[in-house]
Amino acid sequence: MQVKVLFAGEGATIPVLNIGLGFSGIKLWVGQPFVGYTTMTNQGFNGVSFLETPLLEIGEPDPETRRVFAELHGSNVRVKIIPTIFAIDGGSADITVSVRRNLGGQMKEFVISFTADNCRGVSVTAGAIEFDAELFQLPRDEWAPPEKALPL
Asked: What is the pLDDT of residue 152?
């Protein structure tokens, strides 16, 4: 299975009030054939990050996980990105996307996790970027991940 991520976000969190200031958004292309998804959230974090991973081969997940990640429209996901500090090109990031589903009365979590190096963009963050969001399919003509999405 292949995957590509485009992430943009900035802001800060006020810990005592648990209020995020700013925005973050992600585009995720996953599969073979690809399906593209997008989401936005107002959960802020400390710093600013605009990163685009290369297209990555992440191996072959078990059939159940593959099926879940092939149909993410309307799914609530937990996204965690741990980027290095970098500017323009050459950064790396650990990315985890998890989906929880109620199957037969039991909650089950499906996860894809991977490391991407040679990311494009800029990242100056204080720790991990984590947020919960609902994914929506991109229009069909955007299902193929772009070669280079960031206008750098």
From this structure: 40
